[in-house]
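Ticket 4471: requesting a sanity check on a complex prediction with protoporphyrin IX containing FE. Repro inputs:
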Amino acid sequence: MIAKQYLFTAIFWALLGSLFSVIMRIQLGFPNADVSWLKPLLGKWIQDGRLDPEFYLSMVTIHGTIMIFFVLTAGFSGTFSNLLIPLQIGARDMASPFINMLSYWLFFISGFIMFCSLFLSTGPAAGGWTSYPPLSALPEALRGSGGGVTLWIISMVFFIVSTLLAGLNYITTVLNLRTQGMSMTRLPLTVWGLFFTAILGLVSFPVLFSAMLLLLADRTFGTSFFLSEIYIGGKPLHFNGGSPILFEHLFWFLGHPEVYIAIMPAFGITSEVISTFSRKPIFGYSAMVVSFFIITILSALVWAHHMFVSGMNPFLGSVFSLTSFIIAVPSSVKVFNWLATLWRGSIEFTPAMLFAIGMVSFFITGGLTGLFVANPAIDIMVHDTHFVVAHFHLVMGSAAMFGFICGVYHWFPKMFGRLLNPQLGYLHFWITFAGIYLIFFPMHYVGMAGFPRRYYSFTIFESFSKYYDLNILISVAAFATFGGQLIFIFNFIHSMYRGRAAGKNPWKSNTLEWTTESVPGHGNWKGPLPIVHRWPYDYSKPGAKEDYISQTVPYSETMDSNTPEDQQRGGKSNIVEGEKKDEDI
Ligand code: HEM
Ligand SMILES: [Cu+2]
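Returned C-alpha cells:
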C-alpha cells in the first residue's frame, strides 16, 4: 500500500518535473518565438509574449529538485523498498510499519510545501538545485531568492527527515526480518541495491541537513556561515568571515552520493530483470555485491570533483580526480556482468527487459563522459556547460529513470494483479529511448562549443548562432519524449482496471515475491512464510525440469541443477539449524 502511495506520488512529480523541462526547452529551442499561448498556464510569468528570465531559473531549480529528490530518491527507492524488501526477503511487513507511514507523509508534506512555492508572488526558488549561496542566502539577491528559497529549505528539511526514517527502516528490515534460509548471500540483487542505497542516504543526508539549517540561519538570523563581505549597490552588508565554499563542500558531500542513491536501486532492478529474461544466472553475483559495497564507500570520497573550478587547492583536485576515476572500476564491473549475463542468453524482449537494456546503454554512454569531467583539465573547459548537463542526464537522469520504469513494468503485475499492455510498452520504450539520445547526445556538442547551462537565452552570442538548429532538434525531441510518457500513463491507468489478469508468476521468476498471490494481502503470505533453499538466479540449470527453479525449491529435488559448490556439499540444503527462527509460524 505504501509502495503504491510512493509510486503515484512519484509519477505525479515526474510529470510535473518533465513539464518544467519542456518549458525550458521551449525557451532554449525557440528563444524568439511568441509564447503568449502559455499564459493560461504560467500567468504573469509570461510578459509581452516572453518567458520571464528569473522564472526560467526557477524552472531549472524546481525541475532539478523534483527529479532528483522527489522522483529518483523518495519515489524510486520508496516504491521499490516498500514493495520488494519484505516480499523478497520473506517478511510479513517492514520492521516498523508506523515509521514507514510516517516517512511517506513527511515526504508528502515536503512535496506539498514545494508545490505551494510555485504560487508565491516572488516565484519559487531560483538558485539551482544546488542552491549555492550567496544567491540562496541573500533574500534580496534576486526574486527567486525570497520566500521561494525559504520554502525550498523547509521542504528539504521535511524531505531529509523522511529519507532518514525510511532508510533506518529499510536497513533494519533487511538485517532482521529475513525468512528462514534467506542468508545475506542469497539476497536478490535488488535488495542489495536498496540496502546500500539506504546506508548511503543515512551517511550523507545528515550533512545536507546541517547545511540547510546553517543556510536558514544565514537567511533569517543574520549569521554568516556561508557569506563573507558582500556589497550590494556599493553598500556593504553586515556579513563577514563566512565561506560559500564551505557550503559547496557540505552540499556535495550529499550531492555526489545522491547520484548513487538514485542509481543503485536501478542497478539492482536491472540485474534482476536481465537475469530473468536472459534465462541465465546473473554473472558474478558476489562481484556485484562487492561492487555495490565499494561504490557506497567511494561515492562518499569523491564529492569535490564538482568543485574543480571553485578555487580550492589544485592538489585536492588531483586527489578527488583519482578517487573519481577509481569509481569507474566497480561501475565497469557491473556493466561487464550485465553484458556477460546477456551473452548467449535466450533473451526475451519484454518491455521491462528493453528498459533494463536501455538503462545499461545510458549508463555506458553517460558514464564514459564521466571520465572526461573527472579530469580537472577537461572539466575546467566544460564546467557549467551543456556538456555536463548531457553527462548527468544520461548517466543519472535517464539511466536511473529507466531503472525505475523497468521496475514498474516488471512488478506492475504484483502490485495490481494485471499485466501492462506490452505493445504500448514497446511503443513507449522506443519513443523514450530514441528521444533521450536525440535530446542529450547533441548537447555534448553544444556543450563543447561553450553553451553555458542555466542561461536563459543565447541569442546575443553571435558565436552560438550556428547551433540554433541543433537546439531546435533537442527541443523537438524533448516534446516528443514527453508525449511518449503520456502513452505510459494511459497504459498504466487502463491496465490497472482492464489489463489481462497476471497470475502468481507471469515472468517465471525465482524470487520469493512470485510465490505469493498477485496483490499480496495483509501479511504477504497467507500460510506460513516461505523457506529459502537456494540463491535467486537458478535459471536454465542443466537437468532441471523447467528453466527456472524458485528459491523455495529444496536442493535435493533437483540435484543436477545445483551449482557445483552445492553439489560438493552433497546437495544438502545448507540451512544452518537454528540460524534463523521464523517468528511468524
Ligand atoms: C527528457 C527529460 C528531460 C529534459 C528534456 C530535461 C531538461 C533539462 C534542462 C533544459 C535543464 C536546464 C539545463 C541548464 O540550463 O542548466 C535541466 C536541468 C536539470 N535536470 Fe533535467 N531534463 C530531463 C529529465 C531529467 C531527469 C530524469 C532528471 C533526474 C535526475 C533531471 C535532472 C536535472 C537536474 C538535476 C538539473 C540541474 C538543475 C540545476 O541546474 O539546478 N532532468 N534539465
Ligand atoms: Cu559527483
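Notes from triage: Residues 256, 259, 302, 305-306 surround copper (II) ion (ligand 2) (CB under 6 Å). Leaving this open until the requester confirms.
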